[in-house]
Amino acid sequence: VRDRVSTTLSCLSYSRPKPNRFLVSRDQIVKSRSALASLRVCLLSESSRSSSKPLHAFDLEIERTLHRLRKVRHIITSDSNESNFSKHQEAGSMENNDRTLKELVTPDVVYQPWCIQCLPLELAQSYELKSSLIHLLPKFHGLASEDPYKHLKEFHMVCSTMRLQGIPEDHIKMKAFPFSLDGAAKDWLYLQPVLFNTWGDMKRMFLEKFFPASKTATIRKEICGIRQHFSKTLHEYLQRFNKLCAICPHHQVSELLLVQYFYEGLMMMDRSMINTASGGALMDKTPVVARHLISNMASNT
């Protein structure tokens, strides 16, 4: 285009032999008209080509324009959400209009899924828990004074009396365990979100709930620092020590340390008597021999 414009301008050049007078020949006029026509065609084609890709005007306040567009989009989105919410609300109100006042205030019956899921048995292995067995089950209420380990032992003794052909004992325990709970313990089982598939999982969660780690630490501290009271005999002292060990069987104290803690907590007179019976020093005996000797002496006091 630039070359054609230059050619056109060269064709329109004129000579000034005299001031105030132009001398243009006929050939130059024809060439000039032809060049102008070519220039017009080039300009039209270039404008049509550039019109296919329009350029946006340069915005001097682009940040303000962006903020305005975001505000408009937020308003449109909010209006859309409000319209959807109003539609759902209208649908719900239309459903409520079809219900009576009694139906509106009556709570819906929604059953929480049962947390115990036993493995399915074959049809030939079906059974039912007898009422006589349920009445024999011990009761655990979830009180702080109750012993969960003792409850599990008594529960195991009762369930072991009911032996059915082809029925696993753990299956019977999972079915019968809810009947052995009452009060806060039964509420814990009913509100349990965890699904129990095995008896081991149920027993572990039961002990974690009603025998927490803080209680374990307290009993372990009592075992390590046990002392014989002045008015208590050797037999009573041994009973209290054995009871602490039985309440918390997971105390993780070795047999050697148990004998040592028991021996260090003895009063001087009983300690001298045990040393004499052991032939000089109890600590020279093995833990099994020492426990057997202490039990024999305690039974005679």
Structure characterization notes:
The relative contact order is 0.05. The protein is built from 14 helices and two strands. It is mainly α and 301 residues long. Strands 1-2 form a two-stranded antiparallel sheet. The protein has three domains: 45 residues; 89 residues, no CATH class; 81 residues. Helix 1 packs antiparallel against helix 2, helix 10 packs antiparallel against helix 11 and helix 11 packs across helix 14.
Structural descriptors:
301 residues, mainly alpha, 3 domains
Structure, briefly:
With 301 residues, the protein is mainly alpha-helical.
Low-confidence stretches: 14-22
Count the beta strands.
2
Roughly what is the average pLDDT, rounded to an integer? 77
Computed CA radius of gyration, to the nearest angstrom:
50 Å
β-sheet strand percentage: under 5%
Number of structural units classed as domains: 3
How can the largest sheet be summarized? 2 strands, antiparallel
Helix content: 55-70%
What strand order characterises the main sheet?
1-2
What structural class do the secondary elements suggest?
Answer: mainly alpha
**First and last CA, distance:** 127 Å
- Can you count the helices? 14
> What sequence of helices (H) and strands (E) makes up the elements?
HEEHHHHHHHHHHHHH
Shape annotation: elongated
